[in-house]
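Shape matters. As here.
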Amino acid sequence: MLGLFRPAAPPAACEYGLADGSRALLRRLRPDDAERLRTGYILLSEESRRLRFFDQASEPQLDFLDRLDGKDHVGWGALDAKAPDGVFMGIARYVRTAPRLDCAEVALTVLDPYQSRGVRILLHACLHRCAASNRVRRFFYDVSEDNPRFLHHLRDLGAKRGPTERHVVRLELPVYGKSSRVPRDTPAGRRFHAVMCGLERARAVAA
């Protein structure tokens, strides 16, 4: 019976208005997105690559696209709604750490021109809704110590800081499947709550 009350995932594709007035087309990643992701990787600045991939990647690893199953391995991308054939403004994924466990690892990447425009928080909120619908209860993040903005964002959402290894901080955050569950006692929490509310009202579009 409890499964009947699980939050619903967002539509497979929907549009969302960003704070600057532009609109993002939010949709699930799929295998034919490989070339878009290669192009996006090339467009990332060296600093953004370092903060996202640390020192581990010299080229994008895209074999994950064939393993996306919409449940244990979930990926979303945000496109400019006015240029849906272009590169992704950003992408986000979670991977369940092991079968039947209630926790997952999260990764988010946003191209430099779209940072500070609400793309990251939109993708992040989308992952939370999807995870809750798939019985994931906890998210884990590995964040560079040189990325204080995202560290602060996660802490304001209620993340607990874990160990630090080689300047990478481990954080754990509850999955917020509904806007009503998001803490709103910080600016980051209030922004996240507002985005979650918007996603709950989002209607499906073709993409």
